[in-house]
Design brief:
Elements lengths: L10 E4 L5 H12 L3 E6 L6 H9 L4 E5 L5 H15 L4 E4 L14 H27 L4 E6 L12 H21 L4 E8 L8 H4 L2 H10 L10 H11 L10 E4 L7
Parallel strand pairs: 1-2, 1-4, 2-3, 4-5, 5-6, 6-7
Length: 254
């Protein structure tokens, strides 16, 4: 691959790479030319993904990486740097939520969502930025959510955690620009993945979701997010930093 979206010679680490968006992102980065480290809760789950990445002529490195375990996660980043010689790209994709009305959210559940979505993104970005600073820069992409831009009833702790990720993106971009590190975020709507399958199987919920995707009126697919990741990591986005791109079919435009 050549041109403004070419990632040949770049190295990347994707958290939550085993399935869904993480898997699609890892494959798209490899297709664009990058070697990819795979952050996984269970390394044994990655054999097929490793083979697919290698089929594109790229290297794949499966790593044990529970993002709520910061010591393990920092070690995984160090392993990627040691194996590839540098780290050019970090994709903070791992995340999740615990639903429930705001009036009923427990402190335990709030802390769990914050630790998974926000604290991990902050400290993994920090550790990766230290490595990138020493090798001339890089690109960090945080997978936020439309929930960080609009209120989703019943998802209060998730909304708050993703809104924090969006503002964190701005702060990190401003602080780390002098090192040649660009930091951006994506805010997807509902995407067809294993993680959303149960919710979207409810016909009433699915119909309401499609209606709220105000312009295109359809559920997204993983490659519609992974393609944007490639753009934000590529030379085509060399002047883009501190931004959040909504991939929401028009939901937040309403």
């Amino acid at each position: 691959m050549t041109g403004p979206f070419d990632l040949s010679g770049r190295t990347a680490l994707v958290t939550g790479a085993a399935r869904g968006l993480g898997r699609a992102i890892a494959l798209s980065l490899a297709e664009a030319g990058a070697d990819v480290a795979l952050g996984l809760r269970d390394r044994s789950s990655a054999s097929e993904l490793v083979a697919e990445i290698e089929s594109h002529g790229r290297r794949a490195l499966p790593l044990a990486m529970d993002v709520t375990d910061l010591a393990q996660s920092r070690s995984a980043i160090d392993s990627a740097v040691a194996e590839f010689g540098r780290l050019d790209i970090l994709i903070n994709n791992a995340g999740g939520g615990i639903g429930g009305p705001a009036i009923d959210v427990s402190e335990h559940d709030f802390d769990a969502v914050w630790e998974l979505n926000t604290k991990s993104t902050f400290f993994l970005s920090q550790h990766a930025a230290r490595a990138m600073r020493g090798s001339g820069g890089g690109a960090i992409v945080n997978i936020a959510s439309q929930a960080g831009l609009v209120a989703l009833p019943g998802e209060s702790s998730y909304c708050v955690s993703k809104a924090a990720v969006i503002h964190m993106t701005r702060v990190h971009a401003v602080e780390w620009g002098e090192y040649g590190i660009r930091v951006n975020a994506l805010a997807p709507t509902f995407i067809e993945t294993d993680g959303t399958a149960e919710a979207l199987a409810d016909e009433l919920f699915r119909a309401d979701t499609i209606e709220r995707i105000a312009a295109l009126h359809r559920i997204g697919v993983p490659t519609e997010v992974s393609g944007a990741v490639v753009f934000l990591c590529s030379p085509a986005a060399s002047l883009v930093t501190g931004q959040t791109l909504a991939i929401d079919g028009g939901w937040t435009a309403r």
